[in-house]
Write a structure and sequence with these properties.
It contains 14 helices and 16 strands. The chain is an alpha/beta fold. The strands form four sheets. Strands 5-2-1-9-16 form a five-stranded parallel sheet. The longest helix is centred in the C-terminal third of the chain and has 20 residues. The chain is globular. The structure holds flavin-adenine dinucleotide and iron/sulfur cluster (SF4). The site of flavin-adenine dinucleotide (FAD) has 39 residues, from helix 1, strand 6, helix 8 and helix 13.
Length: 574
């Protein structure tokens, strides 16, 4: 490992930070990556082959292991020890964090769908929210490179919600499961199409990563590298260049600035000693996750940046968005008692339902503005602590029902686009600090009628499809009760949004902050909107594109030339 002075400090080793480190080190720049969590080696630590019955409570989630005993997250979850956050009165927001090398990529769902032109230019269509400061065509080649590097399985569907990848980029998807085929057949009667999900899972070997063998839950982590996580791909690749130093247990407290207000480096707490350390570097990239990067900026206020660093627009912490979420499931009688066979696959859904309503929305036939998709559930999966299917009784009779219903419950998980609104944002709690004395994030949250109406539409549609499959669904919950809590889908983005105008955004299209040319944000904070498609593929694609742009600026000495004015940046002078 090189011990040279870093040109770039990156904060965070998850999807955004690791991709930035990969690109910059490949381009020959010296990078120091600071990670608040501990080191993590998926090859030796992944409980890949552990079964639920080997754990207490059949591996059910507990407050210290929210997603089950064998979930790959270490030192994280809805609550992180020593690192509280708060919600303002009347608000409830859930914030999932992971404190480990690789961040949340060690256990994410790996759903990896491209955004489309629809998604980048929503405001131009319906006047709501914000457009992104570039066209789909600008980012398409970077999606191609990211998909090829990360390894994404799926197909080109020809649907207007799913832009195609070039021939040979996508790996073949696994075959659809029987319950998914039944959903597809029923949905087709309504003019709705189910297609292979795109997942960052290898179905063919890539580099030194093996292909999926369809046997172990991806949420446990994937020691063989088939399910993408930065700890088995981008980080080892970046280390192999000799240009990357990684420092774990380094909790960044603030970005440092000089008397002119220019960024000089960062201050972090060494969690092992509790000591504060200062580092200098020509460039700082924040990729600590959307809300954590915004927290660092707000905590980096100084006389030159009184409202927080890079916050002359007042937009840091604002525009907080998550995906909408709601679930509906039912027992499908025709699937009861079917012959047993292995239906494991790559754990998650093999088919999903992309958004089909763009044209109906253009014709103003729907009463909500943005789309959603359905992630489908239904298969012979490993028995867990919970059984579904409206069971009655106990003893032998109960067991018979469990056996009969095994693999016969089909579920629809809605994931939809929310619009930014003035009630959804984060700021700094003036009264609460974490273990290291760093002021914590405080969340404010309220869904708007757009999201509530969208969820109502989703519940109605899911019920229609399930009914066509022969299920008895019963009365639907009210959408305001069915919609999951803010943050619960773990797609929080938007708190340092990018834009074409420094008055309304925190960064330009390259993730470069308008106020400080040597300070970048490369996580989901920069999202101008939060399309219904899961955010991480786009976080990585933007990080690759923007780190590549930064590389070029460094190579030509542009960023060392001082701090150009925001107006120069807006005109693309540098
Ligand atoms: C269970 C689960 C399922 C998910 N499924 C999907 C999915 O299917 N598809 C999808 O697109 N997305 C999914 N997500 C979301 C996805 O994980 C995140 O969008 C993605 O990881 C965000 O990348 P990031 O780099 O911004 O943040 P992270 O991956 O969270 O990485 C940030 C890193 O920064 C570190 N850090 C934070 N603060 C500091 C600090 N002050 N100093 C130093 N380091 C710091 C953290 O410890 C962490 O390692 C899922 C998430 C979870 C938890
Ligand atoms: S199912 Fe495949 S991708 Fe998922 S953990 Fe197992 S081998 Fe890895």
């Amino acid at each position: 490992m090189s011990t040279s002075k870093p040109t770039v400090i990156i904060v965070g080793s998850g999807a955004g930070g690791a991709m930035a480190a990969y690109q910059l080190t490949k381009d020959g720049h010296q990078v120091l990556l600071l990670e608040a969590g501990r080191d993590y080696d998926p090859k030796t630590e992944t409980p890949m082959f552990r079964r639920n019955h080997q754990a207490p409570l059949m591996a059910a989630g507990t407050p210290d292991k929210d997603f089950g005993y064998f979930d790959a997250t270490v030192d994280g979850g809805w609550q992180v020890p020593d690192e509280p956050y708060t919600s303002a009165e009347g608000s409830e927001f859930m914030w999932w964090r992971a404190r480990m090398l690789g961040g949340r990529t060690n256990h994410w769902g790996r759903y990896a769908l491209r955004f489309s032109e629809h998604d980048f230019k929503g405001k131009s269509r319906d006047g709501l929210g914000a457009d992104w400061p570039f066209e789909y065509a600008d980012i398409a080649p970077w999606y191609d490179k990211t998909e090829a590097l990360v390894g994404v399985c799926g197909t080109n569907t020809g649907l207007d919600d799913m832009p195609p990848s070039p021939e040979g980029v996508l790996q073949p998807p696994p075959v659809a499961r029987v319950p998914e085929l039944l959903v597809a057949a029923a949905a087709k009667k309504l003019g709705i199409t189910a297609v292979p999900m795109h997942r960052a899972v290898l179905t063919r070997p890539l580099d030194n990563r093996a292909a999926c063998f369809y046997a172990t839950p991806c949420g446990h982590g994937c020691a063989i590298g088939a399910a993408f996580q930065t700890t088995t791909s981008l980080l080892p690749m970046a280390v192999a260049t000799g240009n990357l130093q990684i420092q774990t247990n380094a909790m960044v407290k603030r970005v440092d600035t000089n008397e002119k207000g220019q960024v000089t480096g960062v201050t972090y707490i060494d969690k092992k000693t509790g000591q504060e350390q200062q580092l200098v570097a020509p460039v700082v990239i924040l990729a600590a996750s959307a809300c954590e990067s915004a927290r660092i900026l707000l905590n980096s206020a100084s006389s030159k940046h009184p409202n927080g660093l890079a916050n002359s627009s007042g937009q840091v912490g604002k525009n907080l968005m998550d995906s909408t979420g709601a679930n509906l499931s039912a027992l499908v009688p025709s699937l009861q008692g079917r012959p047993r066979y292995n239906e494991d696959g790559h754990t998650a859904n093999h088919l999903f339902i992309p958004w089909w309503g763009h044209q109906a929305q253009q014709r103003k036939e729907l009463n909500f503005p943005r789309g959603y998709h359905f992630e489908l559930g239904g298969r012979f999966s490993e028995p867990s602590a919970y059984v579904s299917g409206n069971l009655q009784g106990y003893g032998k009779a109960l067991k018979q029902q469990v056996t009969e219903n095994y693999g016969a419950v089909v579920s629809f998980a809605l994931r939809g686009e929310m619009l930014p609104n003035e009630h959804c944002y984060m700021d700094i709690d003036p009264k609460v600090t974490d273990k290291w004395g760093i002021p914590v994030a405080r969340f404010h949250w309220r869904w708007s009628e757009h999201e509530i109406k969208q969820v109502q539409h989703g519940l109605n549609t899911a019920k229609e499809i399930l009914t066509l499959m022969g299920a008895t669904v019963g009365e639907l919950p009210k959408p305001e009760d069915a919609i999951l809590k803010g943050g619960q889908i773990i797609h929080e983005v938007g708190t340092t949004r990018m834009g074409a105008n420094p008055k309304e955004s925190v960064t330009n299209q390259w993730g470069q902050t308008w106020d400080c040319p040597n300070l970048f944000v490369m996580d989901g904070g920069v999202f101008a909107s939060n399309p219904h498609k899961n955010c991480t593929l786009t976080i990585m694609t933007l990080a690759m594109r923007n780190a590549s742009w930064l590389s070029k600026q460094l190579n030509t000495g542009q960023l060392n030339a001082g701090a150009p004015k925001a107006s120069q940046l807006a005109q693309g002078v540098i």
